[in-house]
Amino acid sequence: MSDNQTDKTVEMVSETHASKRPYADALLRLKQVGLRPTRQRMALAKLLFDGGDQHITAEDLHGMARKATVKVSLATVYNTLHQFKESGLLREVVVGPGRSYFDTNTHAHHHFYVEPAGELVDIPVDSVELSRLPSPPDGTVMDRVDVIIRVTQA
Amino acid sequence: MSDNQTDKTVEMVSETHASKRPYADALLRLKQVGLRPTRQRMALAKLLFDGGDQHITAEDLHGMARKATVKVSLATVYNTLHQFKESGLLREVVVGPGRSYFDTNTHAHHHFYVEPAGELVDIPVDSVELSRLPSPPDGTVMDRVDVIIRVTQA
DNA sequence: TTTCTAGTTTAGAATTGTTTTAAACTATTG
DNA sequence: CAATAGTTTAAAACAATTCTAAACTAGAAA
Fold first, then answer.
1. Tell me: the pLDDT tens digits for A53-108?
2. Domain limits at A146?
3. Residues B10 and B34 in one domain
4. Which end of chain A is more exposed for a tag (fewer CB within 10 A), N or C?
């Protein structure tokens, strides 16, 4: 999967929490952002955050839940993804019209977008050097900078 | 509109072509990319390229056409925008899920995305310095780099 | 010019991804 | 345990876009 930088972190996280007390991490995260730990949210949090860095769509997550025999509606998946995003547990990355991924990596970083596969690959923030940004238009403040490097498979 | 660099080009283009021979420029562009100059394509090209740099949605363009009493269906607007994009006459900029703009400026440049207004503002390519890009994943070649600076109105 | 044909346009239906609704359910508080 | 505020759900609604198949048109050939 050629994703060397992130793999180390992934292993660390999953070994520290996931393998032994499977719900401790999910519960902690929900507590931290003040969302009631319901069965559905716990299950989705576990699917999202126990698997290392992921870029998934709402449909993807709904599919994963079904596979894990978690009963949750698609509407709840959408609600939950947005709540997680609002709370800073997730980031949304938009790559194409009608194509939006939720990214479990909320640290500053960038992306390769691989076409036509439609796959996202993380770029560590320090492997892009971004100097001399223009000042924002009058009356606005900078929120964040997204760098998307679009690449194509030969 | 605080868009100084591009304004000059805009004026130049519109004064050189648009005002006197209104269809010459549109016709030339269609010829160059090998698209048959139909009534609808000519009209849309004129609306798109005679107005200087623009960021518009399919619905926007359809509305502009109606206002200009050009009879064209929404399906044709979508077809035409995609053909223009494939031919390199337009660029597509995706900023949010279900929100995609077509940009008449096809030169390398970047964007401010102003929220919640949902407005795009061009950033000249040379006012962003982008050094040290990572190499693309194996089996892929770099297509282009999009920098979107997300800003919010206070 | 007329005829032919491939390319184009169209209205409307279909599809996709997402949001809304209103009723049923559930986690927490007292 | 009861009250209640927050949550979940199926289903409908919605928005943006694409598809379909029939009607139309630009350009080439006769």
1. 999 999 999 999 999 999 999 999 999 999 999 999 999 998 777 778 999 999 99
2. 107-152
3. yes
4. C
